[in-house]
Amino acid sequence: MKKTLLSQTKKIWLVAPVLLIIGLNYSFKAGTDDIEWLGWSNKCLTESYNPLPDTKLKKWELALTNDYFLRLRKTYQHGKQEYFSFNLHRLNSVDYQGNEQAGTLQLSTAADDIIVQTYEDPKGDIDSMSTTLELPVRNMSAARLDSLKSALSYFKAKGL
Length: 160
Description:
The protein is an alpha+beta fold.
């Protein structure tokens, strides 16, 4: 009886570390995946976007889609809408002007790749293209900016 108890203890001591190593190996991810980058990027953009207070903006939507498009739609009180959109694989540079409290995030493309449209505008609807999208932002620390740049670069590379 002592012999079987000793052999069972030895088996437990041999099997337990193997199971522990297997469990640890599969519990960690190798890196951040698309869904995590997408969620974080949308959270960062939504929390940081700071529309100008003097405009009569009724609502806005800013989103990075799972097909790597950055889209901004602004709706004003009288129904006018402005729409901006571009695919991140066309992104050329991300620049920031301002301080940690407030500034402007400039997203630039090499050519006229940013779609600019207006609807319900008294001056007439406009369809045009642009090379720069300027987003007024707040609370953009250097670490947050670097992380956002990394996320946008990640999606740019995925879209190629």
